[in-house]
Specification:
The chain is of the alpha/beta class. It has a single domain, classed as P-loop containing nucleotide triphosphate hydrolases (Rossmann fold), CATH 3.40.50. Helix content is 44%, strand content 13%. An eight-stranded mixed β-sheet has the order 3-4-5-2-6-1-7-8, sandwiched between helices. Helix 5 packs across helix 6. It binds adenosine-5'-triphosphate and magnesium ion. Adenosine-5'-triphosphate (ATP) binds next to helix 1, helix 9 and helix 10.
């Protein structure tokens, strides 16, 4: 089982849109996928109509794990389950804070899903907190949407420094450009400079697109209502690229 976090300390950069579409494409390509909405505002679960899951394997060991398991919902899509942000997640951060070895706790909790799922996608809230540190430890890949502006460049640099200072493996960090407007020279110039400086950016960029905004109206991933649009192809390509890099990251971590 792999764990991918869609993470940025910045708000409104496309973390939720990425989680939803990536989880959708992963499931469609045959991976048993669990999307966990860790944002207490519950955005990613909003995009899927969820119904009670038929899973009967609930209630094992940890309380936090049990708490998660009992909230698993089936989506309308094969291979894709969702844990919606539940009110109790508001306390998830303080729950983690209350334990010794708290930073490993999410990782241990997620291990419980190992037999049922090939992939867990975490839709993260925009902050650096106990929860985000647990996320960095629990994840194989920390996928970071970066809007190509000067401010985002600084935020990304801060994340790299945070990983280095706290001895988290920097090779988990996988950035890509998000909400790209090619007609803006600032975007083009920032993308050129950042790609040259950090060789780790994915090739796929997600364009700024009204089709992605419309996810809120349709309450669905882009493929459901804008199949032939560029934004949809971009998310599909993003998944294809991530699924390959993910394997590389695992190999690196194990070697
Ligand atoms: N590529 C895009 N083009 C146009 N609009 C987008 C794009 N990606 C996301 N949006 C829109 O921008 C808003 C913020 O996106 P999203 O919720 O995915 O960001 P987020 O990083 O999860 O935000 P938060 O930090 O609040 O959780 C939403 O209204 C979404 O529909
Ligand atoms: Mg979000």
């Amino acid at each position: 089982m792999r764990v991918i976090a869609s993470y940025s300390m910045k708000g409104g950069v496309g973390k939720t849109a990425t989680s939803v579409n990536l989880a959708y494409w992963a499931a469609k390509s045959g991976s048993k996928t669990l999307l966990i909405d860790l944002d207490s505002q519950g955005a990613s679960s909003y995009y899927f109509r969820v119904r009670p899951s038929t899973k009967k394997w609930a209630k094992r060991f940890f309380k936090a794990y049990e708490n998660l398991v009992t909230h698993i919902k089936a989506s309308d899509f094969e291979n894709l389950d969702v844990i919606p942000a539940h009110l109790s997640f508001r306390n998830f951060d303080s729950l983690l804070a209350g334990f010794k070895k708290r930073k490993n706790r999410l990782r241990r909790v997620l291990k419980g899903f190992d037999k049922e799922y090939d992939l867990v996608v975490l839709d993260c809230p925009p902050s650096i907190s106990h929860l985000s540190e647990s996320i960095f430890i629990a994840s194989d890949v920390v996928l970071v949407p970066v809007i190509p502006t000067t401010l985002s460049e600084r935020t990304f640099e801060q994340l790299m420094i945070f990983f280095k200072e706290n001895d988290y493996p920097q090779n988990k960090i996988v950035p890509f450009f998000s909400m790209v407007q090619n007609q803006k020279s600032l975007h083009k110039e920032t993308m050129r400079a950042m790609s040259a400086r950090y060789k780790i950016f994915l090739k796929t960029a997600i364009p700024y697109s009204s089709d992605i905004e419309k996810m809120g109206i349709h309450k669905a991933p882009v493929d459901v209502f804008a199949k032939s649009k560029q934004a949809n192809h971009a998310y599909r390509q993003l998944w294809e690229e991530v699924s390959k890099i993910e394997c590389m990251a695992i190999r690196n971590l194990n070697s």
